[in-house]
Amino acid sequence: MLFVPSLENIAAVPFAMTLYNDSEMQQFFKNTKFWLSPNEEWKVIMKKKISNSVYSEPLQEKIMSLMKPMNYEVEMWKKQHKSFFGKEVEQRIRSKFHWKMDGTIDRLKTASFLIQSDVLQVRHRFRLACNYWPKERVISIWEQMSAGLQDFFRNIEMYDVPYSEYPSNINVIEWIRWHTQIGNSNIRENEWFHAYNWDAVSLQGLLPQKLTSEERLQIIEWTLDGNYYDHSCRFCVLLMAADQRIEVLKMNPYFILKSFLLWPGQSLFIEMVNHVKNDLTEINFLNLLYVIMCQKIFPGWEDFDYFDLLREFWSLIPDECKEFLKGFEIYEPISLVLAKGRRALPELKKYFLHIQQH
Predict the structure, then answer these.
(1) How many CB atoms lie within 10 A of CB 336?
(2) Phi, psi at residue 53, to the nearest 5°?
(3) Element housing 351 (H / E)
C-alpha cells in the first residue's frame, strides 16, 4: 500500500462519512464549490452536530479536516462518471459509496455494488461493468437484459453515441465485439488492452489487474500522454510496483506531482519532488506553487500542513527559478507565508479575493 493511513485517520473516517452524508451538510455543499471556498459557515453547522461529550477535540478537528478532501473525492467521482448517470448523482447513489480507511472512495467496490444492485437501470449497470469488470464477468449482467436492449447494444457504434458518452462506450463496444465475435475488433487475446479506453474510471477497475507489469506500464504511458485528471495520474502510480513508480513519475513529473497534492498523497509529495526536481521547468514550479497557494492554503484546506509543505517545496526550487518567480503576483503571498507561516492568514485574504475576481 502506497498510502498508509494513521490510526487517527482510521478512527475519524467513519464519523466523517456519516456527517458528510447529513442532509443539512449536503444542502450546503450543493450551494457552493465547497473545496475551493474559504467560507467557514459549514464549521458552525458541523459543530452543532458533533457533541463534545462524544467526540474528543482532536477527533473533531480530524473529522472536519476530512470534509474538503471527501467532498472533492465525491465531486471528481461524479464528474468522471457523469457519462454513466448524467450530471445529477442522486442521494441514493451517493449514499452507496464505499470508502477506504484513508478517506478516499473505493471505486472498484462502489462500482461493483452499483453493478450488482437495483439502484441503477440494467443498461447503466452493463455499461459500468464493461469499464470495471473483466469481459467474462460482464456476461452475467448481459444475460439480465431484455432481447431488445441486447440488440440495441449489438447495433451501437461510436457515431450513434453522444460525444459526452464517447469514452465510456469505447469499452462497451469492444466488449460487444468480443462477445458476439463479429466486426473487425482488434481485441486479440494477447493484446486486447490496446483497444480499450484507459481513464480515471477503467484504471480503477479489475481490467488492469489482468495485465503484466510491462502491459500496465504501456497503458500508463498512453494515459499520461493525454489524460490529465489528477486522479488518473495518481491511479497510474498506484498501479505499479514500488520499484517502477519512479519510472512512472519521470514520464510526466508535473501532472503526477500535482496528483500528490491530493489527499492522502501529500506526505509523499516532497519525496517525489526530490526524484524529479531537475526535470521540472520554471513553469512547472510556478504551477505547483499556484496549486498549493490557490487550491489549498487560500481556501483553508486543513487535511495537511500546507504551510510547512510550501516551505519545504520552496527550499528545493533552484535560485534562478526563484528569480523567475518574482515576476508573478503569486510571489508576494508566498513570501508572506514563508516569513510568517499561519500568522500570514489575515493578510492572505486580500490576495484570495483578488484571485477570485480574476
Answers:
(1) 16
(2) -80, -15
(3) helix 345-357
The whole-angstrom separation of Cα 278 and Cα 266 is: 20
**Distance of alpha carbon 163 from the chain centroid:** 22
Count of alpha carbons within 13 angstroms of residue 182, beta-carbon side: 6
Rounded to the nearest 10°, the torsion over CA 251, 253, 255, 257 is 140
Angle at 172 between CA 214 and CA 134, to 5 degrees: 45
pLDDT tens track, the chain, 358 positions: 566 778 888 899 999 999 888 888 888 887 777 877 777 778 888 888 887 767 888 899 999 999 999 999 998 898 889 888 766 667 778 788 999 999 999 999 999 999 999 888 999 999 999 999 999 999 999 999 999 999 999 888 655 666 566 677 889 988 998 888 754 445 455 567 788 888 889 989 999 988 888 888 888 888 887 766 677 787 888 777 777 888 888 988 999 999 999 998 899 999 999 999 999 999 999 999 999 999 999 888 999 999 999 999 999 999 999 999 999 999 999 999 999 999 998 888 777 665 555 5
83/87 Cα distance (integer angstroms)? 8
